[in-house]
Amino acid sequence: MIKPVLITACLWLTATPALADTVAAARTIRAQTILAPTDLTMIAGDVPGAINSLDEAVGLEARVMLYTGRPISTSDIGPAAIVERNQIVVLRYSHGGLSISVDGRALDRAGAGDVVRVMNLSSKTTVSGVVAPDGSIQVGGLAAQ
After folding, report:
1. Which candidate, 109, 126, 83, 103, places its Cα nearest to that of 31?
2. Would you state the pLDDT for residue 11?
3. Eight-class DSSP state of 90
4. pTM (two decimals)
5. Residue 116 parent element (H or E)
6. Residue 53: CB partners within 8 Å, gap ≥ 6?
7. Residue of 97, 84, 85 whose CA lies nearest to 141
8. What percent of the chain has pLDDT over 90?
9. Residue 143 scores a pLDDT above 60
10. What are the tens digits of pLDDT across the range 82-101?
11. Contacts by 101-110 with C-beta closer than 8 Å and gap 24+?
């Protein structure tokens, strides 16, 4: 006869979820560094909001300082910046058949798909737009869709 304590222990062990590994910095990494596989390590445990696969982090840029052994969250990294602060960029507005392009000055660093503030050099007004893969900034029209 199997004892109730043994059955309870077996059920508890099988019901316990397996812990996932979490990606952490293998060394201290400065902000604006592109992450390589040697920069990362796996640690035991599942940290909410942290990355669980090395493939999710390799090739992305550290947006903040990453400290040795600390889990890396999705907000700590992002696409590599293709627009630098104070860089002159092309602002594009497209809607229907209308297309307008003007020069602007980026007020922040940003990668493709990020929202960035830009000062229109003609009117001196500040607008926000989405960074396109070619480094231009899409404002209004298609950027809002």
Report:
1. 109
2. 46
3. E
4. 0.66
5. strand 115-120
6. 23
7. 97
8. 69
9. no
10. 999 999 999 999 988 899 99
11. 101/136, 104/137, 106/137, 109/32, 109/81, 109/83, 109/84, 109/85, 110/81, 110/82, 110/83
Q: Which amino acid is at 124?
A: K
Tally of CA atoms within 13 A in the half-sphere of 10 that contains its CB: 6
Distance CA 92, CA 111 (A): 17
The string of DSSP codes covering 123-141 is: T--EEEEEEPTTS-EE-SG
* Residue 28 to residue 61: CA distance in whole angstroms: 14
Walk me through the domains of the chain, giving residue ranges and CATH numbers: 18-78 (3.90.1210.10), 81-144 (2.30.30.760)
Mean pLDDT rounded to a whole number for the chain: 86
Q: Which helix (H) or strand (E) holds 7?
A: helix 4-15
Could you give the CA distance from residue 41 to residue 20 in angstroms, rounded to a whole number?
13
Q: What is the mean pLDDT of the segment spanning 59-87?
A: 94
CA distance 39 to 119: 36
The candidate with the shortest Cα–Cα distance to 138, out of 108, 121, 113, is 113
Query: What is the C-alpha to C-alpha distance for residues 137 and 101, in angstroms, rounded to an integer?
Result: 10
Beta bridge partners of 43: 22
